[in-house]
Fold this sequence. Notes:
By secondary structure, this protein is of the alpha/beta class. It has two domains: 30-173, Rossmann fold, CATH 3.40.50.1980; 198-372, Rossmann fold (3-Layer(aba) Sandwich), CATH 3.40.50. Helix content is 35%, strand content 12%. It has helices at residues 2-15, 32-38, 70-78, 116-121, 137-144, 158-171, 175-196, 229-236, 257-261, 286-296, 305-308, 325-336, 346-357; strands spanning 45-49, 55-59, 65-67, 85-87, 126-129, 150-152, 206-210, 221-222, 239-240, 251-252, 267-270, 312-315, 371-372. Strand 1 and strand 2 form a beta hairpin. The longest helix has 22 residues, at 175-196.
Amino acid sequence: MKKVGIIVVLIFAAGITFFSAFTANREDNRPEEVSDIEQKTEAKSIKISDATGKEVTVQLPIRRVAFNHFSTAEALKIIDAWDTVAGRGRDMDKQVFPNLDDIPVISGQGLYDLDYEKIFELDIDLFITIKISMDGYDEMLSKLEPRIPVITMHMREPGPFRENLEKLGILFGKEKEALAYLQWYEKVISKLTDQSRSLDETDKPRVFFKTGWGSPSDIQTLSDEAPGIRERNELTGVRNVAGDLTSAGGWVQDVDDEWLASQNLDILVVADPVYKGYGIGVKNDALVRGHRKQVMELPAFAGSKAVRNNRVYMITGELFGTPRFVIGFAYMAKWFHPELYQDLEPKALHQEYLTRFLKVDCDLDKQGVFVYAGD
C-alpha cells in the first residue's frame, strides 16, 4: 500500500503545478515548433518534439493509441479522439469514460509497471505517457521504442498544457477541437488573473494545503519548491505557510504538528483521497464531511482561525491531476476571495466542462461530489 500512496502523492504534486501568466492573445504567440508541425500534417508521418524535448516520429493517421495516465484520457476526450483508445491505465471512472470494460488495462499499480506483452499485442500506432519523479520511465522507453513510438505529454501540468494539447490535436487531426477548448480555458484563466493580480501581499490569507495517504491524521503538503506552486499561490491570491519547509523536490512527507499548530492558519485546504467519497456517481457528501470533521479535530488544526471561522475546504485530487486543474483553481479562488470573485461560478464552469468537453451526461445539482466547503 505504501507504493500506491507514493504514486498518489507524486502525481498530486505534479498535478497541481501552475504556469506563469498567459499573454492576452496566445493565438498570435503560438510556439514556433507547433506551427512547424502544422505544416507537416499532410505528410504520412510527422516529427514532434514532446514535453521532454525528445523528437518523436509518428506515422499518420493514428488509429490506435494506448496510455498509462488518466490525464491523457481526459485530454483525448476533450479533443474527441477517445475512439482511438486501444489500451489504458487503471483506476478510471466508468461514468466519465465510456466502454472501459472493453479496453484492455496495460498498467499495474505503478505508473510504469506495464504489461509489455499486452501492449505489443494491441498493435498500437502510439503510446502516450507522462514523466514524473519515479523509477521506470527510461526502462519503459527502452522496451517500447523503436517498435512503438512513445510521446510524453503533460496534461496535468498547467505550464506546458496549452502547447501539449495543441500538439495532441495536430497528431489526431483534431486541431479545431483543441482550439475550442483552449479558448474556453483561457477565458477562465483570465477571470482568475484579472482579480488576483490586484491583491497586496498583506491581503493574501495564510493557507495550508493538506494531503496524505488518505488517513485524516497523515499530514503531508507541498512547499514552494514544488514546480508551479509559487504561481498557484499568486493566481489564487494566497501565501503558502509551508512554502519554506524542507522538502524532497517540493514534497513535504511529514509536517510537525507543533509547528503547524503555531501557524494559526487562515485557511485549510484538504486534498486527501477519501475512499468512495468523491466522484460523479457519489450521491451525498457524508464521507467527505466525516473526513473533514476528523481533520478539524486534530491538534495541529483544532485551535486555528481556519477551524474557528469554518474556512476548511475539501477538494478531490481529480481537480488537480487532470486537465480539470483549471476548475480546481476556480473553486479555490472563490473560496479564498469571495468578494473579488462575486461573478465567478466554479460549479457552472465545472458543469460546462463535464457536459461540453467530456460529454458526460450528469447534473451536478443532483449528483457528484468533488468539493465540500462546509455547512
